[in-house]
Structure formats: structure tokens, C-alpha cells
């Protein structure tokens, strides 16, 4: 599975960087489909509001039940589009690595090779210098293995919730069906965001590996940025967010089994599931900040190689 995913994101040697991948087109398609589904849900909710105004509470509840499912699938579909575009960015990243590997020998200053080892300080944080490419960190290995399964499981959970929402529409007063719909769909949304987060982690892993490969190919000191604090916060927020998303699903199942006062449980389970998604989105912010720092560090390293030859 890991090998297949690597083949999806790392192009074969010699691939033309000008070749357009299908990922951008497919990503746009999913984003457009998600937006259309969101519009369908909006129209359905307007119909539901009109039904409420006309005193047709039962019909309104039925309409709002299935529109909830459609609306959540809309967001999930857009997230899937984002993930597909990110895989395209990974392909472009590796093409950039190959381009730098081929062009840098002609650009770097002539100098006697000098290998440094040990800890070094940079404007982007602490780094290490050595003779070999850095080994993958545990979080990088996990990210490369988990982004695909997370996306697949997440979208399946969202679609399963959609199916249940249509059943719920036939009996809007059924608390169990309402709980299954919301629990499944927001578990799916959390897993989709986790898949996107793991894709960002894979981008960080590729930057680390690619930077090491280029420096090794040149026979120079391999300088690698140590794991930034923002990356550590990213891992913590992601783990906490996924746990909260799983917890809300379990608690919705508790409500579905008739434990306690359903109205009281549902009053705070809604905000809890949003907290889970918020934590994962905060992790995404930390990952993006880290990517910016790593790109800055690598740009400075390339500039150093060009100007000093070491």
C-alpha cells in the first residue's frame, strides 16, 4: 500500500516538469461537485423554512434531515478535492527536487569539498549537519502510510451518514437515526481533515528527503532542519483532534442506544464535534507554517551552495 501511494506522488525519473497532471482537474471537479451539493442543501433548507412558516412542521423536519446529510457530504467532497490537489503538489515538489539536483552542480561555486558534522544554528531554528541523508522521522513514516486510508475511510463514513440521513428523513423524530447520521458524518469529516493533515506531513517528509538527496548527490555537507516547534504542535493538535472526532462518534452511539436525556446530550455534542474539527484545522495551520519555514531554510541552503560551493 505504501509503495503504491509513493508511486502516486513521486514521478518517474526524467518526467517533464511541464507535463500537466490530472490531479488538478480532478480536484477542481470534486470542489465543483461539493459546491453544487452545498447549493442543493441551501435550497432544501429554504424549502424547509417555508414549510415551517406554513405550519408544516413534520414535512420541514423531514426536509431538514436529508438536507443535513447532503450539506455534510458537500463539505466532505470539497475536502477530498483539496486532498487530490495536494497530491499534485507532491508530484511538483519531487519534480522540483529533480530539477535542483540536475542544475545545481552547474550553478555552485568551485570550492574544495568540506564536510561538517554536528549541530548548527540557522535563522529558521536548530539544524544538524552530517555526511548522509536524514532518516525519516516516525511522524513522516506514519503520514506517508496513513493519508490514503484516512481519506478513504473518511469519505465512506460521510456517505454512510448520508444514507442514514435519508432513512432519518422518513422518521424525523427518531433520535437514534439522528445520532447515527451526525456521528458518522462528523467522524468522516474529521478523518478527511486528518488525511489532509497527513498529506501535509508527507509534503514535509518529501522536503526533508529531497533536500538530503540533493546534498548527498553533490557530495556536500547534508544540512537538515530539526523538527520545529510548530511541527510538534501540529502533531499534538492532530492527535487530539482525531481523538475528539472519534469520541463524539462514540457518544452519539450512546445517545442512539437511549442512554440519558437525548436533548441534553445533543445540546453539547454538536459543539464537541466542532471542537474536534477545529483542533485538526489548527493542526493544518501549524503544518503550513512549518512548510514555510522548511522552504525558507532550503532556499538559504541552496543560496549558500551557489555562493560558497559548500
Features:
310 residues, 7 helices, elongated
Can you give me a brief rundown of this structure?
The chain is mainly alpha-helical and 310 residues long. It has helices spanning 2-9, 23-53, 57-107, 138-170, 175-217, 229-256, 262-308, and strands spanning 118-122, 125-130, 222-225. It has seven helices and three strands.
Strand content: under 5%
Strand order within the widest sheet? 1-2-3
Q: Span from first to last CA? A: 38 Å
Succession of helices and strands: HHHEEHHEHH
- Any idea how many domains? 1
The tally of strands reads 3
Task: Let me know the largest β-sheet.
Answer: 3 strands, antiparallel
Residue windows where pLDDT falls under 50 for at least 5 positions = none
Shape: elongated
Total count of helical runs of at least 4 residues: 7
Structural class: mainly alpha
| Mean of pLDDT | 89
Radius of gyration, taken over Cα atoms and rounded to an integer in Å = 24 Å
The helical percent reads over 70%
